[in-house]
Amino acid sequence: MKKNFYQFLFISSFLLLSNLYSYAQITFEVTFPEERSKTALDGRLLLFIATHNQSEPRFQVVDEVKTAQVFGLDVDGWKAKQVMKIDGKAFGYPIRSLANLPKGKYFVQALLHKYETFKRSDGHTVKLPMDRGEGQNYRTAPGNIYSEVMEVELDPATAKVVKLDLTKENPPIVPPKDTKYIKHVKIRSEKLSKFWGRDMYLGANILLPEGFDEHPEARYPLMVYHGHFPYDFGGFRETPPDPNLPTTDYSERFRIYGYNKIVQEEAYNFYKLWTSKDFPRFLIIEIQHANPYYDDSYAVNSANLGPYGDAIMYELIPHIEKQFRGIGQGWARFTYGGSTGGWEALAVQVFYPDEFNGCFAACPDPIDFRAYTVVDIYKDKNAYYQEGAFKRVPRPGKRDYLGHVYCTLEDANLKELALGTKSRSGDQWDIWQAVYSPVGADGYPKPIWDKLTGEIDRSVAEYWRENYDLGYILRRDWDKIGKKLEGKIHIYCGDMDNYYLNNAVYLVEDFLKSTKNPFYGGEVTYGDRAEHCWNGDPNLPNHITRLRYNFMYVPKILDRIQKSAPAGADLKSWRY
Q1: Residues 324 and 270 grouped into a single domain
Q2: What does each of the 576 residues of the chain score in pLDDT, given as a tens digit?
Q3: Residues in CB range of 224: below 8 A, 6 or more apart
Q4: Domain stops at, among 447, 466, 485
Q5: Do 118 and 292 meet the contact criterion of CB atoms below 8 Å apart?
Q6: Same domain, 260 and 361
Q7: Which keywords are on file for this protein (predicted)?
Q8: Pairing state of beta strands 359-362 and 489-494?
Q9: Is residue 575 part of a domain?
Q10: What SS3 class is residue 306?
Q11: What is the rounded CA–CA span in Å between residue 183 and residue 206?
Q12: Distance (Å, rounded) from C-alpha 103 to C-alpha 156?
């Protein structure tokens, strides 16, 4: 018995020492030269490891199984030529430690996502990655420095030091140019600048109606197209598709060839429709509100992001309507979008019910947090697993139209944790947390759950419910706002949405159909086996409907205007 015990102790000690030894066998030593910065830098140092170089490793990190490996490390006051080490202690995704990296030949690359210091009006000082015109993307953010791609042999059991020098730098973003139909505006927001303690800006891409210059007497209804950061106004093309564009490109998402040509064809078709004789004349705007947490603010006021809702509603939109002759009244404003834009469309209609006359929310991000994708944040204890007495089952994070799971919810969150701590990954779960959460003691968003374990913080969930759970707010406040929302809410979602967003739509639909005095008077429809970005047309495939947001709701908007415009409203000047 004693002999077996000592054998066990010896083996355990050997394994422990072996693990400790292998823990530090591979080390990456990263530096940057003075020509990249003479001042010390803050940020997130990222190490990417890929099995191929068809694209640079920094572009290969995704939620799905084809992802590259990434390790992350927060750095503060990093000076030129100073060695920063990434070893087995750095947190990684999908493999958590370098010690567990399989032996093999890899392509490696390092990048510093730069942070800036913000002294906010709420008294907190935080370090965050300011958007620099790229739409909050660490891969391409201007000023981010990175290394050349290096091919190396790595074996966790063999000591090796790999040196990487961040000699390259992302260039500035060249602003898009104005055309006859597309204009661009950028304004300093007084509200946001006060909150962030520095100048902050809002922008927009504006699509002008045909005949804008020829009809100076016309005043136009406004359509606000919400969505992710738009570099330029998309989906509008004044020339036919490129005849030399190959049709051999394959879209894994839509499982078809030649999708790039389809996109150009749809954009050109929209141009022809937009300029046609009988098409109604509107202004369409896409808002640029990338911020230190994401490519988009979610268009609402937030404890962590500041008063983006009010800044957009009362600073940017009036500026655009004044400059481009908008009617400037709630009956003549409409909002629509898909995914993030779908949530925003419904949210601004609910939070500013008098300022819009209808929303068209397609595949919206979770609009009821009892179905925060596949989590009930009010009842579930753990976001990553369903838990029983003897078993725990991982919660799915993404699926296809047949229900095949691409990643778990835990996968997506651990990827974000590797890319950035304190909600600084610039990715989906972190921006939801940044928008919806109260400010934590450290000045960053208070987590809804522990990123490592998935354990849900019930106090944060309650804050979310009272302030951003649209389904709950509709139920709670219908007696106050129902009359203002009558006939305005339209929601569309595929019943096989890739991110399970239809689950929340079902819950909101149940309430809307039960409303009385007034009845909501809108619509909620589903696409059979339709995936993410289905936007309400049952007669066309997903990959086409997602390209028609800018005009598919126009008949409903015209009908709404005719039914609800106040006496004396201008219904003619824009119908030339």
Answers
A1: yes
A2: 444 444 444 444 434 434 443 454 899 999 999 999 999 999 999 999 999 999 999 999 999 999 999 999 999 999 999 999 999 999 999 999 999 999 999 999 999 999 999 999 999 999 999 999 999 999 999 999 999 999 999 998 899 999 999 999 999 999 999 999 999 999 999 999 999 999 999 999 999 999 999 999 999 999 999 999 999 999 999 999 999 998 888 998 889 999 999 999 999 999 999 999 999 999 999 999 999 999 999 999 999 999 999 999 999 999 999 999 999 999 999 999 999 999 999 999 999 999 999 999 999 999 999 999 999 999 999 999 999 999 999 999 999 999 999 999 999 999 999 999 999 999 999 999 999 999 999 999 999 999 999 999 999 999 999 999 999 999 999 999 999 999 999 999 999 999 999 999 999 999 999 999 999 999 999 999 999 999 999 999 889 999 999 999 999 999 999 999 999 999 999 999
A3: 284, 285, 287, 317, 333, 334, 335, 336, 345, 348, 356
A4: 466
A5: yes
A6: yes
A7: Signal
A8: parallel
A9: no
A10: strand
A11: 5
A12: 7
**pTM of this prediction?**
0.94
Strand blocks (E) in 392-520: 392-394, 396-399, 405-408, 489-494
Three-state DSSP at 201 gives: strand
* Domain assignment of residue 42, given as a range: 2-169
Residue 118 CA to its chain's centroid (Å): 22
DSSP track, 352-366: STTT-S-EEEESPSP
CATH number of residue 217's parent domain: 3.40.50
Output the CA–CA distances (angstroms, integers) from residue 145 to 32, 150, 171, in the order listed.
Answer: 8, 16, 10
Look at the chain and report how many structural domains it folds into.
3
- Can you read off the two tokens belonging to residue 29? 């030593």
Q: Are residues 381 and 336 in the same domain?
A: no
Three-state DSSP state, 246: coil
Residue 537 in any domain: the answer is no
- Which residue shows structure tokens 């804050």? 463
Residues 22 and 36 in one domain: yes
Which residues, listed in sequence order, are joined to residue 449 by a DSSP beta bridge?
456
CA dihedral for 492, 496, 498, 500, sign (positive or negative): positive
Residues 314 and 431 placed together within one structural domain of the fold: no
Within a domain: 440: yes
Same domain membership, residue 146 and residue 225: no
Q: Which residue has the tokens 């086996």?
A: 529
Q: Are residues 46 and 63 in the same domain?
A: yes
Residue 357 maps to a domain = yes
* Chosen domain end from 466, 500, 516: 466
Q: Which residues pair with 207 in a beta bridge?
A: 182, 284
Q: Which amino acid is at 433?
A: Q
CA distance 476 to 481: 10
Q: Which two tokens stand for residue 267?
A: 């954009």
